[in-house]
Structure formats: C-alpha cells, structure tokens
C-alpha cells in the first residue's frame, strides 16, 4: 500500500526515533508498504519518520543510481543490487575527508543542495529477521545510508546547509510545508494536518 510521505515542517521529521522489537505490529506489512511508497515516488531511500512513524527503521535501494552515466563503472556495479532494510541502526564510525554531493529528499521535493559527508561508515543494524549485522560502506551507498540514518535521528539534509543557503531556500521550504507545491506522489502537509 502506498503511504503519504510527510512533508517538511511536520514535527515527526525532527524527532529522534525510538527502537523497535520483533513484536512491532504488522512490521512486515509496514516494510512492504514503505518499499512500495519509495518506488512510487522514485526514491532510493525512505525512513519511517517520512511516513509519520518515529521508529528506527529505514530502507535503501540504490538500483536507480546504477543507470547514472556520470558515476564510475565500479560505483554503478555497486549500486545495482543494493537493497536493504535497516532496523535500530547505529552508525559506529564515520571517517575520511568530507565530500559534497547534490542531495534531495522525498519530504522536501524540488529542493536539491550540495551536502558534505564523510565517505566511509561502519554501521550496526538489524534486518527484517532481527539478526544483527555490523557492516562498512563507502561512497554513494554510504551517503544514502547516512541521509536515511539522519532521518531516524531527527536531522534533515537542509539542517547541514550553511545559514546563507538556508536563507536562500527558506521561501521554498515554507511553500512545501503549506502544500504549495506540485508533486506526483502522495504527501501529507503539516499545514493541512493542523486544519483537521
């Protein structure tokens, strides 16, 4: 089932998410719906806060990046079959010299900005069966994971911008929170939620 994606300005996007256990109600259905929602919005990642749930769950599928001609052959190959669900994730280490990449977010449509992140991460998480993994990633996959991980920490990519950049996009962010934007996927806007 495709769920509405929560828009910029909703308080759930700024909350630090809570851990869950295997008894979380209808977890498999939720994960399935999140993948369907992400694909329906042409995203490469989606975190539970983006569908209004403050829980430590996000998923990533970097397949769309495998068709990007601007990436190296190695990067494209890496992206091809990377599809994972991360539950109760904790980034244990981030290292390397920060590098910029133009990021966007399904909760902040039509806003893209260069964000600096470290290239290598070590992350501990549980999969759908609640088996624990500790893995290392680098490059674009690490970046997608860092972006989604930020969501469960209550951080948006716009929080990482300079105050000058934030001032430049302030009007666009306000319009998004008020629903004054054209998008081709289901969204829930904070201004509309308050009117009910």
Automatic annotation (TrEMBL):
Top-level EC class as recorded in UniProt: hydrolase
Alphabetical list of CDD domains matching this protein: Pep_deformylase (cd00487)
Domain of life where this protein originates: Bacteria
Positions of Fe cation binding: 105, 147, 151
Cofactor(s) in the UniProt record: Fe(2+)
Catalytic activity entry: N-terminal N-formyl-L-methionyl-[peptide] + H2O = N-terminal L-methionyl-[peptide] + formate
Record note on cofactor: Binds 1 Fe(2+) ion.
GO biological process, one term: translation
Active-site residues, as the UniProt record annotates them: 148
HAMAP family assigned: Pep_deformylase (MF_00163)
Similarity comment: family membership: Belongs to the polypeptide deformylase family.
Stated role: Removes the formyl group from the N-terminal Met of newly synthesized proteins. Requires at least a dipeptide for an efficient rate of reaction. N-terminal L-methionine is a prerequisite for activity but the enzyme has broad specificity at other positions.
Listed name of the protein: Peptide deformylase
């Amino acid at each position: 089932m495709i769920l509405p994606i929560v828009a910029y300005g909703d308080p759930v996007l700024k909350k630090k998410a809570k851990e869950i256990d295997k008894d979380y109600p209808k977890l498999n259905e939720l994960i399935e719906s999140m993948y369907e929602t992400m694909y329906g919005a042409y995203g490469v990642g989606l975190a539970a806060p983006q569908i209004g749930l403050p829980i430590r769950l996000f998923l990533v599928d970097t397949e769309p990046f495998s068709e990007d001609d601007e990436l190296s052959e190695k990067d494209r190959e890496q992206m091809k079959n990377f599809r994972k669900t991360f539950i109760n994730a904790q980034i244990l280490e981030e290292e390397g010299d920060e590098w910029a990449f133009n990021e966007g977010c399904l909760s902040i449509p039509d806003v893209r900005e260069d964000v600096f992140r470290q290239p290598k991460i070590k992350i501990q998480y549980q999969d759908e069966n609640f088996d624990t993994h500790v893995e290392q990633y680098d490059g674009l996959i690490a970046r997608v994971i860092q972006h989604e991980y930020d969501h469960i920490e209550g951080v948006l990519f716009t929080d990482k911008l300079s105050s000058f950049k934030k001032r430049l996009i302030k009007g666009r962010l306000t319009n998004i929170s008020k629903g004054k934007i054209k998008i081709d996927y289901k969204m829930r806007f904070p201004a509309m939620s308050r009117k009910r």
